[in-house]
Fold these 2 entries.
Entry 1:
Amino acid sequence: MAQESLELLSDTTDRGLDRDCTTLSRHVLQQLQSFSPEAQDLSALMNRIALAGKLVARRLSRAGLMEGVLGFTGEVNVQGESVKKMDVYANDVFISVFKQSGLVCRLASEEMEEPYYIPENCPIGRYTLLYDPIDGSSNTDTNLSLGSIFSIRKQEGDDLDGKATDLLAAGRNQIAAGYILYGPSTMLVYTIGRGVHSFTLDPSLGEFILTEENIKIPEHGSVYSVNEGNFWQWDESIREYIRYVHRTEGYTARYSGAMVSDIHRVLLQGGVFLYPGTVEKPEGKLRLLYETAPLAFVIEQAGGRATTGDTEILDVVATKLHQRTPLIIGSKQDVAKVESFIKKGH
Ligand code: AHM
Ligand code: MG
């Protein structure tokens, strides 16, 4: 073999090996360029989230073959939605995984009315995990894409009354956020405020391996992603925007029923995802603390934007744990286009 091809071969092998060795926990430490206690905490927290993701992915991959995995439990959650067995399983997975971490004293999720305390962790556990264990629940029984969304905040104050009111703060207080996407492969995308990075689960290693660093969302994309079944319930300004994309060449609709996968597409290829308010639900469907704020943190870090149509999502201060917000998120130009219709309408 010619010297040149040999060098090329060893170069690509090295790069491949280098990449194979960039696990999530190592990446977090690299990002922070430190082995300080804070950096170690964040690395351990991300490692735990990855473990939860692996457990959920493992169950989903065999869901159709096992008893008691798919379908509803018969319960209705705090949001008034029917609970699926996978929602309960995934919710419990995060609790179990963080019980053992020592770092997290409180967890708050879509599936629990009140925050869940882990008293044995509270003397040292200065972090709170906010999460949506299964995003896109309606896709569960049809073997379609699903997600988990997470956000980590530092506990402010002593929370003596046990009401976790310090969580009612703007999304800019998040110290880490991201999502796990259960698709043909399982991916984890995260930010700690230093760009956005994606990892793919290598099932043969059981590790999330770095896929792409410093992802940048395109300034504009052709995709608009929204449930048009709600058309007649939206404000006229949103209807006008949709009429605009219908009559303008170069737009294409994509909507999967799981916003983690829709927003992942927008992150990589550009475009906009919307879940506006409706007449029945003026605040929309999505929850601020564990759905829209973490995704807004990711998209902002990738160079995009997320707004309610009125206020940047990361500036919205929650007034209650399960607060909802409308969401317009994605490429800067596409979010601005939607906003221009909202402004015209007022
Ligand atoms: P969920 O967390 O209960 O699954 O709800 C969130 C999901 C989003 O992933 C998705 O975009 C939206 O709800 C779909 O709702 P709809 O069926 O109203 O379009
Ligand atoms: Mg959800």
Entry 2:
Amino acid sequence: MIELYLDTADITETARFHHCFPLTGITTNPTILANSGVGLKATLTYMSNLLGKDARFFAQVVSKEAESMLNEAKKLNELPYDMVVKVPTTEEGLAAIKLMKQGGIQVLATAIYTAQQGFMAALCGADYLAPYVNRIDAMNGDGVAVVRDLQLLIEKHGLSTKILAASFKNVQQAMDVMKLGIGGITLPVDVAMQMFSHPAIEPAVAQFDKDWADAFGDKLSFES
Ligand code: G3P
């Protein structure tokens, strides 16, 4: 089954979607944590208590050089959770991914804007690739096409890397990439909400309620 994540550090929103979605865990990035005003360790404590011990968490290194990224990744990997270390897919980031994989650390290559960039990360051993679908679209590119190319390359070359598509502004983008058979997706809260939003849903349910009440009052289904 596709792995479904929320791209957030908001504990209230995570609780809401944990209630109704089969969440695998949450993904974060430096901007998300900075905006939340809560550090990584406290966020992970809250999230782990909420989602349980099987939840998977993604946290990004902020170091700049490959060796220091590796040292930071080792610290993240020591946290008592199922951690995946996010690494920006730069020249140093690719070098860091190679080092991290030698050390058996789970890695996601992030900030992917092109198929070639993601493919190199996959060849370096990244467990996950995070192509930024909406950010690519917003630059007059084709985010879904990048994901399609990456998925094709992964399959053609028999790689175990999974695409964990990220950066969405609407459900169309999310649905388009999920149709490609990718391994995972992380949704911001507003797009997660759009998953069960449609103007026809509430009127349909209201009509059922009215018809039922007219016929059977306040009886429950099995009482009728
Ligand atoms: O976590 C990185 C990615 O999800 C970025 O999303 O919405 O900032 O483009 P966004």
